[in-house]
Amino acid sequence: MAELSTLARPYAKAAFAHAQEASDLSGWSAALVTAAAVSQNEKVGELLDNPQLTSEVRAEKFLSVCGDYDASMQNFIKLLAENHRLPLLPEISELFEDLKAQAEATLEVEVISARPLSDEQSQRLTQALSKKFAREVHLHSAVDESLLGGAIIRAGDTVIDGTVRGRLAKLAEAMNS
Fold it and tell me: Which of 85, 101, 117 is the endpoint of a domain?
C-alpha cells in the first residue's frame, strides 16, 4: 500500500494544485471520485490491462465511461493513461481528499460505539475534537454491538480506543510490566 501511495502522491498534489488554482476543489474532488470508481470496475480493469491498446485509446475509452469532463480533467486522465497510472485513481482520489481537507481545515472523524450516540453526545464530541485538532470536524458514527462499552474514534491517522476492552488491555499490560 505504501508503494501505491508513493506513486500516487505526485499526481494527487498536481491535481490539487491545479484545482486550487482554478478554484474548483469540489469539482475535481467529484471527478476524481467518479474516475476512481470507474477504474475499479472489473470490465474497465480488463481494458486497462489490455496490452494491445495504446495509451491514447485507453484514455479515450476510459473518458467515454466517466462522462463529461472539462479539458483539464481530460488531460489529467490522458497523462495517467500515458504513464500507465490509471489503476492508481482510487489512491489519487483519497490523497486529493486529504489535501482538500487540510486546505479547508476540516477533519473527517469516525466514531464506532457500542450504542448509538445521542445528539448531545455527538455535539459534545464534535466540539471537543474540533478544539483538540483545531479543525472543523465532520462526525460519522456507527454502532458495533460487539463492543462492551465505550467507543473507538478514528480521526485521520489518530485512533483513540476508549472501549472497555481497550482499557482492560492497557490495564493488563501495565500490570505485566
Answer: 101
